[in-house]
Fold each of these.
Amino acid sequence: MGSDKTSTMKSGDPAAQALLADRSAVYIVLARGFSQPDETVLDFLRQCDQAGPRGDSDVGTSLAALLASIRDGDLDKLQQAYMRLFDPVNGPFPYESEHKTGHDFAKANILADIMGFYRAFGVEPSGDRADHMAAELEFMHLLTLKEHYAAGKGDQEHATLCREAGQKFFRDHLSLWTEGLLAAMRASLSKDDRDHHLFYEHLMSLLECFISSEKETLP
């Protein structure tokens, strides 16, 4: 993943479709990984053995390691690890606006822009804030899935709409704060003298290499 530009591939081309399917699968695995763990999340991840890219790519290797780490995972331990990692008082906080400097109105503008993207595609986040990492990843999953479906039907107009929205959302939001969040997460883990779940180390590795791959894939 990452070596081919989706924009250079003919819509509906098997290689382009396979790449879209792989990207969409990785996005939803990451989205579930950054969600607060419960039985539904755990069951979903355990059923993703065949999801996403395979082979010796960095993304494929990281994805396989992540899914292997959760196969026999204990939900209670995973929940404890999540709460220690994303300390609700001291952070790090998995919200885009918390990684931006500026006044409250600047953060409000970020949230408003994100909601503009979501509502344009009929998405209304439930439960947590719209700028949660899980929500942004799931939105990118939705866009790549919609692009895949439209391209497969030969609907180039809709495929292009989804692709361009994904490019802009990735450029203006997701790609801008991932590095900062990962640095904060790693700092949090390094300070924690209690055992933390290996799952989150693999989750960070997958997010890092996938975002790097997406920067090459998306023009």
Note: The radius of gyration is 17 Å.
Amino acid sequence: MDIAFIFAIQIIYAVAVLTLISLGLALVFGMMRIINLAHGEFITLGG
């Protein structure tokens, strides 16, 4: 496969992961009105 195509797919995956993380933080902040920094711990555990 073309290296540019593989690179583009990896960028799309990275953007999707960061989008899910930011949506999770926004959802928690929207419901509780408190910034929950423990969200990052769960992301780290998933890795």
Note: The CA atoms of residues 2 and 8 lie 10 Å apart.
Amino acid sequence: AACDPPLTTVRQPVEEMAAEMARLLLKQIGEPGGPSPSVLFPAALVRRQSA
């Protein structure tokens, strides 16, 4: 382990988040002034010994 005690972390779908943000950016470039939607992604708390 890199840390002692092992740290609690948050797991996020990073690849899915990056793909969606790129899609939204390209849409915003193509349609300036359009709405900026909120996007929710699932996250999971990975509990280890630090919490």
Note: Residues 1-30+43-51 form one domain.
